[in-house]
Amino acid sequence: MADIHVDWKKLQEFTAAVFEQAGLPPGDAAVEAEVLVWANLRGVDSHGVQRVNGYVHSVEAGHYNPRPDIRIEREPPATLLIEADRAFGPVVTTFAMKQAIEKARGAGIGWVLIRNTTHQGAMAYYAQMAARENMAGIASVCNPPNMAPPGARAPGVHNSPIAIAVPGSDGRTISLDMATSVAAFGKLDVAMDRGESIPDTWALDGDGHPTTDPHQARFLQPAAGYKGYGLALIFECLSSLMVGNPLLTAAISGPGARPGAQNSFIGAIDIAAFTDPDVYRAQIDELVSAMKGLPRVEGVDELFVPGEPEERVRLERIEHGIPLPVGTRDKLIEVAAKFGLEVPWRE
User: Is 40 exposed, middle or buried (0-12, 13-18, 19+ CB in 10 A)?
Assistant: First the structure.
């Protein structure tokens, strides 16, 4: 069955209504819906509305807290430690980045650690929050292990993503958003929704062998072998261990990590603390032009900088709608029926 295209505003309103029914306050439900649909608009469907049903099940299982007690536990001049109390990731992480930006206005840098959050969606959303304020933004997260170190046949690290965004002129950014695995687990979910196979470089089966069947995938393969593994391990050291909530060792040799558990670091750097922001943005534009002006190999029509392909998809999907494969539609139909809501498309 072919994809259908859904108006992004209707999809976002529906998603917010689902989360309100799941127990989130209206403002928090709106934030959660915005971050998910933002990912869909940019073509990052692995982190979009295909996750809605799973989030609702996590609330029902007690893993996600729809009305958390988010609190600041430590606050030196340039840093914060936030206890999220199993909050929905986008709810606490947008709060954290706003705090980081305010810290950076005074100290030049704001660095925030979040303990006990849940899935945060596409991390570039938060890095771009800082870029819109003439700052460089950075965001990363750690989970219990889902990725095998090179040579292992069991997961040892999480495929911890990292997002960094810097501002150019007219609202444009260079925006890197990458997992430390070859592909995020959400991409396997999308492949299952589409009934497609996956490249054998993405994941391993339960015996540690590469697989092209997303249904057989048990853990991910690191990007660039030891490089992706090394980054993921260091991100655990900079987040989970910093907040006294180890996830990897707890899962491998300890009592086990709580389902849905995440720890995160968020940062904002005020460009004005180092140089003139107007000059910086102009130099970003010149850097982009230099990259795009490099000689191309035969068959390549254009060179891109990080974030540029996603921005082009966003413009196209704003006009023509967000494509939803049948598997994703089935998930949304299920959650709509659960809460007595109408799906945002014509059946």
Answer: buried
DSSP-derived pairing of the beta strands 210-211 and 4-6: unpaired
CA distance 2 to 10: 20
Q: How far is CA 288 from CA 127, 135, 169, 276, in A?
A: 19, 18, 11, 19
Give the Cα separation of 217 and 261 in Å (integer): 21
Helix (H) or strand (E) holding 5: strand 4-6
The answer to whether the predicted template modeling score (pTM) of the entire model surpasses 0.90 is: yes
Q: Please state, in angstroms and rounded to a whole number, the distance separating the CA atoms of residues 177 and 36.
A: 15
| 140, containing H or E segment | strand 135-142
Give residue-wise pLDDT tens across range 108-133: 999 999 999 999 999 999 999 999 99
Give tens-digit pLDDT for 209-248.
Answer: 999 999 999 999 999 999 999 999 999 999 999 999 999 9
Query: What residue type is 196 in one-letter code?
Result: E
